[in-house]
# Entry
Amino acid sequence: MKSWDERIDEVWADQSLSDRQRVEQIDVLADQRPDGDARALFERAGARDSAGLEAEAEGLYRRALDAGLDDEHRPQAVIQLASTLRNLGRTEEALEMLRSERERGGPLADAAAAFHALALASHGDPVAAVAVALETLAPHLPLYTRSVMAYARELAAPPR
# Structure
């Protein structure tokens, strides 16, 4: 018998599902967990977020975080909630969440940086967005890392 996680992964991987069907199938699986289960709340939020139902997703993400997500899913929930907030026009809150998540480090720090750059652009600061994107990209370049980092710092520096 497949684990709950495997069944969740299958729903996410099934490209034949409509957004509504995905939400419904995630809800069926989430109902198999105890009320208030952080992971079930997170999956419900993600399904709604993916379906463009950001207003519904926001509260579920917050409840999942409050319920105590594990170290794998907590950063995902923070990034996804911040992206949802950006889509809802609440870029200040999104920026703060993403700044904090980037500072925490971890395996999703670069993903947090990508969404931080998007939030900066949505907030009307495309130069800072490019600086964050370049700063994040630079360590992954086979050449020119130092130059790209210097240009990113130059873009991020306050005007003289």
